[in-house]
Design goal:
single chain; 598 residues; alpha+beta; ten-stranded mixed beta sheet; six-stranded antiparallel barrel; 18 helices; 34% helix; globular; binds adenosine-5'-diphosphate
């Protein structure tokens, strides 16, 4: 502890007047600021000021408050709740206020005792720093001073922090340094006659978005290799999406598929107060996943922020901010970052609980009236951006939030507020999962507001007629839904031959295209080109069949459905990427069934 804080804590000490679960009220707090971090009682529990009224402060405490009572002291720190940003974040597992869980476990065993301080970044570990700037260089915020190879696959850029710019007075040579060693001195031109010491580590308050130069329009899809997503409900690099997660609907598998295959450099996973054992599953499974691109553990480019429901509610509230700040920091280096938060409903419930204890006016279903604005502000931090720094590099942060609507009721406030701000909705459907249709994303209820934004990209990477192909496939799936209604009422015999062909093609779209097995070596990932060719093959067969019945209106549907080509189409998903040329042969054959069978 520095002398300054020792001095401060002696003279600026609050006194607890009330304790209500995670909320502590203290008087004598006139020197405190909003969102200032405080240490509560002699146990030094970490808390944050969330409401100030003259000299009374409401404090949310990030640790269990039992045994704490009125009369005990509150110490101010003068700092906002911040995270430490520097090498050592990747491969780590943090709690909601960036305490590394493995380090905590070492300190305190399985049950984390209270008041433990463990910094987000290891102070003793040395990192090999390679400078790329030199003495005398004029640098501004965001400029890159050098880099550290953080893991085998990620080079960690050491950047001038926001709010600092000026001439480099000194910079260290290439060598090994800890995160707190001084590596450069800058004559800070932002504040006259001051120098600023640069370390491998910087800090940032979690509730404030890290600054950028400008937000750019997202136009490039975040390719996930999952056909239903990339073809029908794409998310962009820098885009936002939401996914409801009924139990057993394949949410974990989807998230792991995204983490493995999405075209992102860095993955941030925020596990927010799901049932304790579910979080344990994530904590055990994630570290075992292998990154298909590098063949190394996926954790080499991943950080987990984990809050189980047995951790205090306030830490859960903070965890999404901790996660997104870590994600923004890697975006600032120019990386493509994907953040997944599971489940944001638990975050909203934490907000509701704290708001209730503050006796705020409740909104819908007891959630605070600011639920909507907080949700929007969180997703606002996603984006495809021009980063700070002279080199005009671009970075992006895509955010996918899971929601857990009670009883699957999508009209409840958390889901509604999320849908209002996210542009993609993958409707995971328990019924589909029950029928073992995976991924269980319902193609009728899901949507993406980006699909037109990515058309140019898709025309180039898939094929020039991509928009038409996508539209025809989607239309057939929608037609199927209304035809099935008729079949239910009056039976399949009442359908025209053309309608029966529509049903048959839609079935093929569902089974041969939308269903994708995460555990099959080839099927687990499909490139944009292959996905396009697969759709083309299914549609070529369909269009030929329609032509054929024009010539032969008495044709039996069985003749079409038993065509041997159908079998080939069903197996296209297993054609390896290096052999997708073969699919063009199938498309050609499908285009000719009119001729061959006549
Ligand atoms: P949730 O997390 O929603 O409770 P899971 O993600 O654990 O559900 O999925 C439940 C089961 O469904 C998995 O164990 C797996 O057998 C199956 N499953 C889900 N998605 C797929 C998929 N894309 N491919 C194959 N099987 C899947």
């Amino acid at each position: 502890m520095s002398n300054k804080t020792q001095f401060d804590t002696q003279h600026q000490q609050g006194i607890i007047t009330k304790v209500s679960g995670p909320l502590v009220v203290a008087k004598n707090m006139s020197a405190a600021k909003m969102y200032e971090v405080v240490k509560v009682s002699e146990k030094k529990l970490i808390g944050e000021v969330i409401e100030l009224h003259k000299d009374t402060a409401s404090i949310q405490v990030y640790e269990e408050t039992s045994g704490i009572g009125p009369g005990e002291p509150v110490f101010l720190t003068g700092e906002s709740l911040s995270v430490e940003l520097g090498p050592g974040i990747l491969e780590n597992i943090y709690d909601g206020i960036q305490r590394p869980l493995p380090a905590l476990k070492k300190l305190a065993g399985n049950f984390i005792t209270r008041g433990i301080e463990s910094p987000g970044l290891d102070r003793s570990r040395k990192w090999h720093f390679k400078p790329s700037a030199k003495q005398g260089d004029e640098l501004q915020a965001g400029d890159i001073l050098g880099a550290v190879q953080e893991t085998e696959i990620v080079s960690h850029k050491i950047m001038i922090p926001p709010g600092v710019s000026g001439k480099i007075e000194s910079i260290v040579k290439e060598g090994d340094y800890t995160v707190i060693d001084e590596i450069a001195k800058i004559q800070n031109s932002e504040i006259r006659n001051t120098t600023y010491e640069i370390r491998l580590m910087q800090r940032w308050p979690i509730r404030r978005a890290r600054p950028i130069k400008e937000k750019l329009l997202p136009y490039e899809p975040l390719i996930t290799g999952q056909r239903i997503i990339d073809a029908f409900f794409p998310i962009t690099k820098g885009g936002t999406g939401s996914v409801p997660g009924p139990f057993g609907s394949g949410k974990t598998v989807i998230q792991q598929q995204l983490a493995k295959w999405a075209d992102a450099d860095i993955i941030v996973y925020v596990g927010c107060g799901e049932r304790g054992n579910e979080m344990t599953e994530v904590l055990q499974e994630f570290p075992e996943l292998i990154d298909p691109k590098s063949g190394k553990p996926l954790m080499k480019r991943t950080v987990l922020v984990a809050n189980t429901s047995n951790m205090p509610v306030a830490a859960r509230e903070a965890s999404v901010y901790t996660g997104i700040t870590l994600a923004e920091y890697y975006r600032d280096m120019g990386y493509k970052v994907a953040l997944m938060a599971d489940s944001t409903s638990r975050w909203a419930e934490a907000m509701r609980e704290i708001s209730g204890r503050l006796e705020e006016m409740p909104g819908e279903e007891g959630y605070p009236a600011y639920l909507g604005s907080r949700t929007a502000a969180f997703y606002e931090r996603a984006g495809y951006v021009k980063c700070l720094g002279k080199d005009n590099r671009e970075g992006c942060l895509s955010v996918v939030g899971a929601v857990s609507p009670p009883g699957g009721d999508l009209s409840e406030p958390v889901t509604q507020n999320t849908l209002r701000v996210t542009k993609v909705f993958w409707a995971l459907d328990a019924q589909l999962a029950y029928r073992r249709h995976y991924p269980a994303i319902n193609w009728l209820n899901s949507y993406s507001l980006y699909y037109e934004d990515v058309n140019d990209f898709m025309k180039e990477k898939a094929g020039a007629d991509w928009p038409e192909v996508r539209a025809q496939a989607m239309d057939l799936l929608q037609q199927e839904a209304s035809l099935q209604e008729i079949v239910r009422l009056v039976g399949v015999e009442s359908l025209s031959l053309k309608e029966q062909i529509v049903l048959d093609t839609a079935k093929s779209l569902r089974e041969d295209f939308l269903q994708q097995n995460a555990y099959d070596e080839v099927d687990t990932y499909t490139s944009v080109k292959k996905m396009y060719l697969m759709l083309k093959a299914i549609l070529a067969f369909h269009n030929s069949a329609l032509k054929k019945i024009q010539d032969d209106p008495e044709l039996k549907i069985e003749i079409l459905t038993s065509d041997p080509l159908k079998e080939k189409i069903a197996k296209l998903k297993f054609v390896p990427e290096e052999k997708i040329g073969e699919i063009e042969g199938v498309i050609e054959e499908a285009g000719k069934i009119v001729i061959s069978n006549l």
